[in-house]
Structure formats: structure tokens, C-alpha cells
Amino acid sequence: MSEQENTVTEKTVSGDSEVNQTNATIESKNTESSVGDSGIDSSEEASKIANLEEEINKLKIENSSLKDSWLRERAEFQNFKRRTANEYLSIKREALKSFIIKIINPLDNLERVGTGISINEELKPFIDGINMIKNEFYSVLQKENVQKIDVVNKPFDPMFMEAIASEESEKYQEETVIEVYQTGYEFVENNERITLRPARVRVGRPKF
Q1: pTM
Q2: pLDDT digits (tens, 9 = 90+) for 47-94
Q3: Could you give the CA distance from residue 113 to residue 110 in angstroms, rounded to a whole number?
């Protein structure tokens, strides 16, 4: 082999070596770049996950707060409905009480018609007509859950009665109503009794 050919061969081998070194350097840089890119992607992904978790926690807190607020509002609304219903019932009772009292006073006068007098044939139609009117009034009152307080021969109860007079006797074992001067009325609803006007009575008391 000639010297010239040896020189060319050496140059070729040298060039191949430099190319291989260059390729290795490029591959090394690509690997480093790839590793670096992978590190950046993992960091960004972790940051996104952390942000999402934080957002989810905020939404959970907000949802819990809204739920508590809704429950409070619902409870307040239920209480409002209950108060409104009670106030309406109270107003209704007071209005009814005021109206009934205005009616029962004329009824007292109707009760007195024919009392203490002898009824002859001429007065009988008139008295019968008064009784019919009186019974119609009582029918209206009963439809409104208003009734007379039945007290004759019953134990005296100051919740529903007012003692105007009394007498003592050994025949009474307890305070007992023996006469009614003015009829009492009460409003009865759902086993609840509300006195519209107490009965005015004479009471028999035990004698000690």
C-alpha cells in the first residue's frame, strides 16, 4: 500500500471516530434533554393535581356551608308557618269570642221572655215564636263549636264559673252549684275549652 493510501485510510478512520463521538454527544444531550423534559412534566402534573385537590376541598366546604344554610332556612320557614298558624288561630278565636259575646247578651233577654209569668192561650204563640228564634241562635252557636256551660248540680269550678251568692248547709259535701243566674258559654275545639263567658251562679257550701 502506498503512503498516499495510508494517509487516506487514517483520515477516514479519524473522521469516523469524530462522527461517532459527535453522535454520542448528541445522544447524550438528547437523553439529558429528555430527562429534563420528563422532570418538568411531572412537576407540572403534580402542581395541577394539587390545585385540583385544593379546588375540590373548597367546593366541599362551600357545599357543606350551603347545606347548613338551607337547613337553617328550612327550620326558620317551618317555625314561621307554625307561628303564623297559631297567630291566625288566636285571631280567629278572639274575633269569634267578641262576636259571640255580642250575640249571647241578646240571648239572655230572650231567655227571660215568659219567665215568672203565667202563659195563657193568647201569649203562647208569641212565646213559641221567641223560643223558635232562641233555638235558631243556639243552632248557629253549636255549628261554631260554642256551647252552654252545664253547671247545675255540678261541683263549683272557678275556671268556668263566677259565684254571685252562696249558702251553707250540712247537705252539701262540697261546693256545688245550686242555681244559675246567667248562662255561661265556652268554645270547644280539639278537646280544648275556652271560656267565652263564665256562668254566674249561686253556690251551696258545706257547713262546718
Answers
A1: 0.56
A2: 888 888 888 888 888 888 888 888 888 888 899 899 998 888 788 778
A3: 5
pLDDT at 18: 52
Beta strands across the sheet bearing 199-206: 161-169, 199-206, 176-182
Report the mean per-residue pLDDT for the chain. Answer: 79
Res. 31: pLDDT tops 80: no
Q: Looking at the structure, do residues 193 and 104 belong to the same domain, yes or no?
A: no
Say which amino acid occupies 29.
Answer: K
Higher local confidence (pLDDT), 31 or 112: 112
Do residues 27 and 85 share a domain? yes
**Number of compact structural domains in the chain:** 2
Mark whether 79 and 165 lie in a shared domain.
no
